[in-house]
Every structure is written in structure tokens, then in C-alpha cells.
Amino acid sequence: MNLTWNKTTTPNDLYTALRTLAEDYTIREVATATPGTTALLFSPGGDHCVAKREADGIHISGGSRAARLRAVGAALSGLLPVGATQDEATPFTTVGIMLDCSRNAVMRVDHLKQWLRRLALLGYNQVMLYTEDTYEIPGEPRFGFQRGRYSQAELRDLDSYAAGLGIELVGCIQTLAHLEQILRWGEYQEVKDYESTLLVGEPKTYELVGKMLDAIGGALKTRRIHIGMDEAWHLGRGAYLDRNGGRRKFDIFNEHLAKVVSLCRERGLQPMIWSDMYFAMGSPSHGYYDTRCVIPPDVVAAIPKEVQLVYWDYYHNDAAFYRDWMGRHRAMGYEPVMGSGVWTWGQFWYNNKITEANAGACLEACRSEGVKEVFFTMWGDDGAYCDFDSALAGLTWTAERAFTEGQPDPARLAARYRAICGGDYAVVHRAGDLNEYCASSLLWDDPIIGIFANEGLPPTAFPPWDKIRDHFAALARELEGRSGNVDAGDLNHARLLADVLARKMTLRAQLMAAYETRDLGVLATVCDAARELAVGFEVLEASWRRGWMRRNKPQGYEVIQLRMAQQASRHRELARRVEELIGGVVSSIPELDERPRAMPRGMGGGWRYLASGSTSV
Predict the structure, then answer these.
(1) Distance separating alpha carbons of residues 196 and 599, to the nearest angstrom
(2) Is 37 helix (H, G, I), strand (E, B) or coil?
(3) Are 312 and 377 in contact (CB under 8 A)?
(4) Which architecture does CATH list for 3-88?
(5) Within this chain, domains 3-88 and 94-422 share the same CATH topology
(6) Sheet (strand 27-29) strand order
(7) Residue 107 DSSP code
(8) Please, are residues 425 and 414 in contact by the beta-carbon 8 Å criterion?
(9) pLDDT at residue 603 is higher than 90
(10) Residues near 471 by Cβ (< 8 Å), separated by ≥ 6?
(11) Per-residue pLDDT tens over the stretch 341-350
């Protein structure tokens, strides 16, 4: 739909946003009505944003700036035919996202700006950039070294661009743990407690934290800042223990928090932290979601009152659990900020099934409990190998749930997604089946050693190999011919992944069956298939590279490239080893003979656990 607007019927706070959206969408500023276009006509109103299509144009009244831009998105999506009315009111003051820029993939500035335009039309008003060390600190050249860090100029540029779209850009950093990428360098040994944790009480620690706060606070206009402090499992167990002896973790944590909050206060910053450490430290099992956890009153009393607690939870599909944990935060005297998740971590493609179950239950609880701030995380654990653009489908879905009660209307959801993100919602949804059967572990698994094949696939939890093969083969066929527009996820890349997975499963099944019986004829076909699959991995790598370079800064891609090269090389090695067996050079392949003697118990993972049984990785 071709939309027009002019200053006389448009509030000042929308001028920049509408001009910016014109970079992608048919929204034009005009002096007078233009034939063949539909005018956007804005007027004051109440809390609800009401959009109605009348003969002279689309009238949008009331609501926040984010709600009004969402109404513009509805107009672009064709959701407002003549006579139709859209009346939306979200109970949330903040509807945001948190983008992981620390697990190798640092989104390019131009690509992130495209995301900002889409997010504005979906109704989002906050973006957090999760940057452990991927931002520039003047005078600290090793901070974010070769990690694709955002420069100060880039952060200021993004901040200004987001503000023009009505989006608050918030820095989300770490000031205690998750800092292994900088603590590996010699320059930072004096502030190192343990592998990933800063040394509490060391004056140089707070000099560094002050520089972190200055870097983020100086680049971004908002005074809000997320200072992290989650999952500090080794707090007080390294250099701190040597210096101070054993102390209650609660006390070490609160001592550090008080100092960091004081540094924030000096700079006029309003901090928030992840809340998990309080619950984990109070749990007999050290688990965040342990219902037995007890946080002593003196610990609660020592938490600085100006800090906000962020309750992160991506793992429950029961609204009652979320309500319980929200209540526990409030019992501590803090109104929680809710961090839910659009699942991208450990996935090749946005996982719609987990997201809709868990984020849906979370939003239901947020509505019933009156939680006002919610954002959706997109993590990149284990190398950020997900096609993050596919997650725009999840962000369309979560926005729909945030602005309307109950399950989204499928037709409206698909129309909005197509117009704003440029994708076919049903096909992108279907491509989510790429995540079935622990697909990433199947892909990273070494073809000879087979750690996951032996240990991670207990028969009671997984179907037979042929069913897994058939699943991915069918998906590859369905995605055939879907290449083209890659703005909402590269469906051809998804097809290549499905094809390689199907072929790898076929190869593994043939290899093991033929090896057991020493069927030399089948083993000969295994050699050919292994070499063909090595080429398949090289084709897949080329596709991966195109997507990565389109979305992200180049640093970090070397990890994916190394994994693909490993798979190609190891499949060629498999062919050589089998040929040696066929030719009588060897009588066995020891890696295939060695199996677990105990019943498999499953395993945690990621690439480093599957690439080798040795220590070099």
C-alpha cells in the first residue's frame, strides 16, 4: 500500500520515524493529497491506539508513539480495508528485544538499522545490545580485540537512528562474570578472580568497570544500563579466595554490586541486573529455578534500592511458574523486568515451537500479574550459527501477543510479517523443523568418532536413524526452489542444512551396518558418499559465509569456517580409513569399535564436546 503524510496532520515526534521508514517502505511525505495513495491522518486520543480506514485516509488516534507506528505497520500490511478499525492497547510500557552481540556474531550497523525499522513497525520501543566486550573502550585496545566490537561512533550513530524511530537503545554489558574473552589477556590478570569472573575488592577492577560505564554511558542517550552480573558461578573461588579466604557468596556479590551501583550513581546511570544469582545462591542445588531457594533477609536488605532486577526465563511453558517467580521478586521489594526469549541459541533456525510455548506462557503471566516491562532475548550460544533473520518471525509473533490478548490471528500475523519483514510466514515456520532431533549436535558430531551418535542418542529418546534421515530429506524437498529474498531468513541455506543432515544420517547408518558385517560392497559406496558429503559441507560453508557477511561483521565467522572445514576434512578421512579397511591395510577402525559400556545418559554440549575426545579443542 502506498501511504502519504504531511506535517499538518502528523505530530512532531513521528516526523523522523516516517522519513526513516521511507528507506524501505512506500511511505512518502507530501504537501497535498496524491491520487492513488492513502493518507495517514493522526490525531490525539486516549491510551488505546485506534486506527480506522475512512474515505479520506487512515485515521490514527491515541496510544504511544510505538503503538502509532505499529498502526502504520498495520496499514502497510493491508489490515485496514475501508471501514475497518484496529483498536490496540498493550499493558506494557516497554516491549523490547535483547540481541546477543557477544557470541561471535556482531550485527553490522546497516543490518541492525534495517532491524530497527522493522521493529518500529511491529511496535517495539526498546533494543538492548548484549555486549560483553564487543564495544570500544578508549585506552583499552585489547577490550574486544578482533571480536567485531562496536566503535563509539557506531554506537552513537545507532543510538540516534533508534531514537528517531522511537526506540530506546540500551547498553547491556557485564561487570562481574561472562568476561572470559578479556580475562584471557595478560593486561587483565590483576582484575581476574577466576576464568570469567572479575576480582571483587580489587581497586583496578573498579577502574575498569568505570571505563565500561563511561564508554556505554557516553555513547548512548538513555540513562538506563544493564550491568549483567549473572551466572557468576566461580565468584570468590580463585584469586579472591587466596586473598580473603572463604566468605558467603551473598556478601561478596552484594559488596561488588554496591560498588558498581555507586559508580553508576556518580554517572547518573540507572542500573539493572539479572536476578539469577540471588536465587541460585539461595538454592541447595544452586539452581536458578529451585523452588526451595531461600534468600536471607539481610541479603535482601543490602541490595541497592535503585537497581532493577531482571527475571530471565526462557524455559517454562507454565504461566503459573512465571507468576510464582514474579511474586518472589516482589517479595524482595523489587518490581521485575521480564526477560523472555525468542529461541535462536543452539538452533540453526528460529525455533517457533519452544518460543510460542514458553514466551506465550510468560506473556500470559505478565498480563495477569501487571508486569510492565518485557523484552525478548536472542542468544547466540555455541557460536551464533542461527540465521538470526529467521527470528523476525518470532518477533512478529511476540509483538502480536504483546499488543493483543490470546493467540494471534494467523491471517493477520502472516500479512503483517510479509509486509514488514518480507517473508512467507508459513514457509519460515515450516523451516523451523530444521531444529528437530538436536540437529546442531548431529551436524557437529565427528563422522568417525561419533560422540553424539553413540552417547547422545539413547533409543528411548530418539526415533531410529531412518526416521531422522527421512525428516530432514522431506524438509529439504519442501524448501527446494525457495531461494531468492533472504531478508527474513535464507530458506535456501535452510534447505542446504536439511540436505546435508539427511545425507549425514544416511551415511552414518550405512557405515555402521556395513562395518559390523564387513560388507565390502556397501563400504565402497560409503567411501563415495563420504567424499560427496565433504563437498556438500564446502557448499554449505559458502552459503553460511554469504549470510554471515550480509548480517554480521566478519570477526567470529572463522569459528563456523573451521567447523565446516573440519567436517569436510574428516569425511575425506573417513573415506581413506574405509578404503584402508577394504584393501586389507588395516583390520579395523578403532574409533568405530569403541562404544560406551554403560547405558547412554545423554550429554550437554555444543561443538567443543563433539569435535573430538581429545583436549586440543
Answers:
(1) 34
(2) coil
(3) yes
(4) 2-Layer Sandwich (3.30)
(5) no
(6) 27-29, 3-5, 38-43, 57-61, 49-54, 85-88
(7) B
(8) yes
(9) no
(10) 433, 436, 437, 502
(11) 999 999 999 9
Query: How would you class 304 by CB atoms within 10 Å of its CB: exposed for 0-12, middle for 13-18, buried for 19 or more?
Result: middle
**Three-state secondary-structure class, residue 192:** strand
169 sits in which H/E element: strand 168-172
Continuous segment of H or E residues that includes residue 541? helix 520-551
pLDDT tens column, 558-594: 999 999 999 999 999 999 999 999 999 999 999 999 8
CA–CA distances in Å: residue 204 to residues 3, 138, 235, 413 = 56, 16, 17, 51
pLDDT of residue 462: 62
The mean pLDDT value for 462-481 works out to: 91
Query: Per the CATH hierarchy, to which homologous superfamily does domain 94-422 belong?
Result: Glycosidases (3.20.20.80)
Record the cell numbers describing residue 134, joined without a space: 564487543
327 vs 306, 320, 341, CA distance in Å?
19, 11, 20
Question: Nearest Cα to 122, choosing from 90, 160, 100, 157?
Answer: 90
Grid cell listed for 547: 549470510
Judge contact between 530 and 572, C-beta under 8 A: yes
Domain ranges of the chain: 3-88, 94-422, 436-610
Q: CB-side exposure of 470: number of CA atoms within 13 Å? A: 5
Sorted by sequence, the CB contacts under 8 Å of residue 591 that are 6+ apart come out as: 448, 449, 450
Extract long-range pairs of 284-287: CB within 8 Å, 24+ residues apart: 286/233
Work out the pLDDT band at 461, boundaries 50, 70, 90. low
For domain 436-610, give the CATH number: 1.20.120.670
For residue 602, pLDDT over 70 is answered with no
Rounded Cα distance, 253 and 257, in Å:
6
Orientation of helix 352-369 relative to helix 319-331, angle to 10°: 50
Residue 385 near residue 440 (C-beta atoms within 8 A): yes
Paired strand residues for 41: 59
User: pLDDT grade, residue 595 (50/70/90)?
Assistant: confident
Residue 196 CB neighbours (<10 A): 21
Q: Backbone phi, then psi, for 500, in 5-degree steps?
A: -65, -40
Please compute the mean of the pLDDT values over residues 160-189 and round it to a whole number: 98
What pLDDT, in 10s, does the model give residues 284-320?
A: 999 999 999 999 999 999 999 999 999 999 999 999 9
DSSP per-residue string spanning 280-347: HHTSTT--TT-TT----HHHHHTS-TTPEEEEE--S---HHHHHHHHHHHHHTT-PPEEEEE---TT-
Kindly state the cell numbers that stand for 333.
Answer: 521489594
Residue whose C-alpha is closest to residue 502's, from 538, 465, 539? 465
CB 118 within 8 A of CB 87: no
pTM: 0.97
B/e letters for 11-22, b = 16+ CB within 10 Å, e = fewer, are eeebeebbebbe
Place of cell 583496578: 204
